[in-house]
Write a structure and sequence with these properties.
single chain; 204 residues; mainly alpha; 8 helices; elongated
Length: 204
């Protein structure tokens, strides 16, 4: 009778000490974190493009032909510089640049407008101004990043900001024809040289 009663009641419950329970929870947390990290790595591997054809050929395999649609989807912009963009890409980049100019560049580095330091509120209609400000913004993004190190901002001021301000706000710069008086605003884009077609005589 005693044997049957002990079998029916089952074995004694397994008890884990508080110290062992803490170690078990820590190990379980580490395992879950590793599984998640492996999942992220697998997702990245799935999203990466296939190896270049040159590497495939070097391994002794024939290159896999790609459809024209796939090439169009994977092909990125030829340049990040705004003057090389057009259409929606240009409009999107100009909108982002405008935010940077209005909320960072002008409040910090705008300085007072004068005949010796002209500025135009419609700067986005001056191609040279757009080009110089965009180049300045690209450099700012790179040199104020954490990876640029502690001297990044100083390098940006010395090599990019100071040089840009000298040319952008020069008396004969892109804003030379714009009125500097707030009471008499005027905006005019200076005419640029007209390019002449290449003739046989010039080519010779």
């Amino acid at each position: 009778m005693s044997d049957s009663s002990s079998t029916a009641s089952g074995p004694d419950p397994f008890r884990v000490s508080d110290e062992d329970l803490g170690d078990l929870a820590s190990t379980l947390a580490k395992t879950v974190a590793e599984v998640r990290q492996h999942g992220v790595i697998l997702d990245r591997l799935d999203s990466e493009p296939p190896p270049p054809a040159t590497l495939t050929e070097a391994a002794g395999h024939a290159p896999i032909p790609e459809s024209e649609d796939a090439e169009d989807e994977d092909e990125g912009p030829a340049s990040v510089f705004i003057v090389a963009l057009g259409g929606d890409a240009y409009a999107t980049e100009l909108a982002a640049l405008t935010d940077w100019v209005n909320y960072l560049f002008l409040p910090v580095y705008g300085r007072e407008i004068s005949s010796s330091r002209p500025w135009c509120a419609q700067w986005h209609e001056h191609p040279e101004a757009v080009a110089r400000l965009h180049a300045l913004w690209l450099a700012w993004q790179q040199l104020t990043d954490v990876e640029a190190g502690l001297t990044g901002p100083a390098t940006w001021h010395r090599d990019h900001l100071d040089h840009t301000l000298v040319h952008l706000r020069a008396p004969d710069g892109p804003f030379a024809a714009c009125t500097t008086s707030p009471g008499r605003p005027n905006h005019r884009v200076l005419a640029t040289p007209v390019s002449q077609p290449l003739t046989a005589e010039v080519a010779a």
